[in-house]
Design brief:
This protein is mostly helical and 190 residues long. It has two domains: 1-32; 33-187. It is built from seven helices and no strands. The chain has helices spanning 2-5, 8-25, 34-63, 69-105, 108-112, 119-148, 156-187. The longest helix is centred in the middle third of the chain and has 37 residues, at 69-105. The chain crosses the membrane at residues 37-56, 89-110, 122-141.
C-alpha cells in the first residue's frame, strides 16, 4: 500500500480512471460532453490555484520569518519553486477552462462586457476578477518570486524590492478571491 500511495502519478491516474467511471456510470442523469468536461477541469484547476494561493498566504508566508536561516533553503530551493509551478499553471488553466465554458455556453462576450442580464453580469464580475488575479500571478508575483528564490540573477536590492511587490499582489489576489468565488458559485450558469 505504501508503494501505491507513494506514487503521485499512479494515484492521479487511478483518480482519473475513477472519475471517468463515475462520469460513465451516471451519464444518463449527468451527460458527459465538452461542457461538463470543461466544468470539471475548471473546478480542478481552480482548486489547485486557489488552494495554493491560500497555502502561500495562510501558511508559507507567515511561517517563513520563524524558520531558522539554515533551514530556509529547503523551502526556497525545493518547495517554493514547485508550489509556484503549480500555482501559475493552475491560474492559467483555470482561466482557459473558464473562458472555454463561457464560449461553449454562448455567454462569454456578454459576461465580459457586462451586456448580459442577471447571472451573466455576476459571472462577468467573477471572470474579470479571475483575469486580474491571473495577471497578478504571471506578471507580478512570478517575476518577483524568480528573483526572491534565486531562479534568475538579482542583486540584494532587487530581491528586497521584489518581496513587497509579490506580497501586495498575492494579498490582492487573496482579497479578490473571496468575491470571485462568490460570483462563480452563485451565478450557477449551466
Amino acid at each position: 500500500m505504501a508503494k501505491l500511495f507513494g506514487n503521485l502519478h499512479l494515484i492521479l491516474g487511478i483518480g482519473l480512471v475513477a472519475a471517468i467511471a463515475v462520469m460513465l456510470g451516471f451519464a444518463d442523469s449527468a451527460p458527459v460532453d465538452g461542457n461538463s468536461i470543461f466544468r470539471w477541469l475548471h473546478v480542478f484547476f481552480g482548486i489547485v490555484w486557489i488552494g495554493l494561493l491560500y497555502y502561500l498566504n495562510f501558511v508559507q508566508v507567515p511561517t517563513m520569518p520563524k524558520i531558522p536561516a539554515e533551514q530556509k533553503g529547503a523551502i526556497t530551493g525545493h518547495i517554493a519553486p514547485k508550489v509556484f509551478f503549480f500555482f501559475r499553471y493552475g491560474a492559467l488553466l483555470t482561466l482557459i477552462t473558464g473562458l472555454g465554458i463561457s464560449i461553449i455556453d454562448g455567454y462569454g462576450h456578454a459576461a465580459l462586457t457586462f451586456s448580459g442580464e442577471g447571472n451573466v453580469k455576476l459571472i462577468g464580475v467573477g471572470m474579470w476578477l479571475a483575469i486580474i488575479m491571473a495577471f497578478n500571478v504571471w506578471f507580478i508575483i512570478w517575476p518577483a518570486q524568480k528573483k526572491i528564490l534565486g531562479i534568475v540573477e538579482a542583486t540584494a536590492e532587487e530581491k528586497a524590492a521584489a518581496a513587497p511587490r509579490a506580497l501586495i499582489a498575492s494579498r490582492t489576489n487573496l482579497l479578490l478571491s473571496l468575491p470571485m468565488l462568490y460570483c462563480m458559485v452563485s451565478a450557477n450558469l449551466g
